[in-house]
Amino acid sequence: MGWTLQNGFSKPAEPVPTAAWRSAGSLSRGQVLAFFRGLPTSVVAMEACATAHYWARAIGKLDNEVRLLPPAYVKPFVKRQKNDSADAEAIVEAASQPSMRFVAPKTEGQQAHSMIFRTRDLFVRQRTQLINAVRAHLAEHGFIAPQGITNLAALTAIIEDTNIGLELIVVETARLYLEQIDMLSSRIASLEKTLKSEAKRSESTARLMSMPGMGPITAMAIEAFAPSMTVFRKGRDFAAWLGLVPRQYSSGGKQVLGRTSKMGQRDIRGLLIIGAMTVIRWACRKAPAETSWLARMLTRKSRMLVAIALANKMARSIWAMMTKNEDYRDSGLAAA
After folding, report:
1. pLDDT digit string (tens) for 11-54?
2. In this structure, are residues 246 and 331 in contact, taking their beta carbons and an 8 Å threshold?
3. pLDDT by residue (tens digit) across 234-257?
4. Which residues are registered as beta bridge partners of 6?
5. Rounded (5°) CA angle 307-288-319
């Protein structure tokens, strides 16, 4: 983890001496807090990488101001070769920029919720990997099954069918896959139950779930991974933070917009798009009013593009709900 210290760092716009970080020397993990206890109140800048949020909380408790910088914003300040000294100097220079954007340190509660979310995500990916593996092995023997967890029964039927002539070793090995898939499905269901229970406890997540397309998993992801909505000046800024805005290639006063930037928090962005697709499927069954925003968009654009645009509207609504402490106002998510 790259971090650096600057004593008396009170005016970021002024040039910052690069020798300040060298005075600390090399510190082991156990020496870090003892080192800061012997210093006056300081501004500590760190890259927002592994364990950075823990150190931000621990160092902040010693009356220091901690600033976490995205690694992508530090990299342009690294001069020539990359090493610890060059990284520390780059962190100091990046933190001194008046327009620099910092990462809000996460609380212990946020990191606990993110652990549940990440563990569920890992188990889902492992289950998908196992299903694809057993499908591939059966395909080598001429037996094809559809993709997806919903078609697991078809895979099971092929494996347990004694009349199709599969080798016994293939059947026994495939059963090991099915046992592992069942175990992961049980653990995923348990984690989802925990997420739903945690979502009901929090007033903010309960408020978020009042929006169509917003389930407990998405609400918990916002609580775990998003900073306080007061960090953003308006809903458009939150949507941009999620990467739900077009990538810009503008120059010379000419505005050129490309595809969705995807430069923000991928977990929340993906879940909002999934939720938006659910709203669209439900609306198509109910035949939305021809004058509504959603109906007009669906007549001109593909469903995926409409889902991304709707996810952008949902992100802006989330900002408004959280900053104003109000439940979702039923506008159909389709009003102009």
Report:
1. 333 434 333 444 456 778 888 898 888 888 889 999 998 899 99
2. no
3. 999 999 999 998 888 888 888 887
4. 43
5. 45
The values of phi and psi at residue 103, to 5°, are: -95, 130
CA dihedral (26, 29, 34, 40) positive or negative: positive
Q: What is the pLDDT of residues 81-125, one digit of tens each?
A: 888 888 889 999 999 999 898 998 999 989 999 999 999 999 999
* Full 3-state SS string of the chain: CCEEEEECCCCCCCCCCCCHHHHHCCCCHHHHHHHHHCCCCEEEEEECCCCHHHHHHHHHCCCCEEEEECHHHHHHHCCCCCCHHHHHHHHHHHHCCCCCCCECCCCHHHHHHHHHHHHHHHHHHHHHHHHHHHHHHHHCCCCCCCCCHHHHHHHHHHHHCCCCCCCHHHHHHHHHHHHHHHHHHHHHHHHHHHHHHHHHHCHHHHHHCCCCCCCHHHHHHHHHHCCCHHHCCCHHHHHHHCCCCEEECCECCECCEEEECCCCCHHHHHHHHHHHHHHHHHHHHHCCCCCCHHHHHHHHCCHHHHHHHHHHHHHHHHHHHHHHCCCCCCCCCCCC
Beta carbons of 95 and 6 less than 8 angstroms apart: yes
User: What's the rounded Cα separation, in Å, for the pair 284 and 295?
Assistant: 9
CB 238 within 8 A of CB 316: yes
- Identify residue 28 by its one-letter amino acid code: S
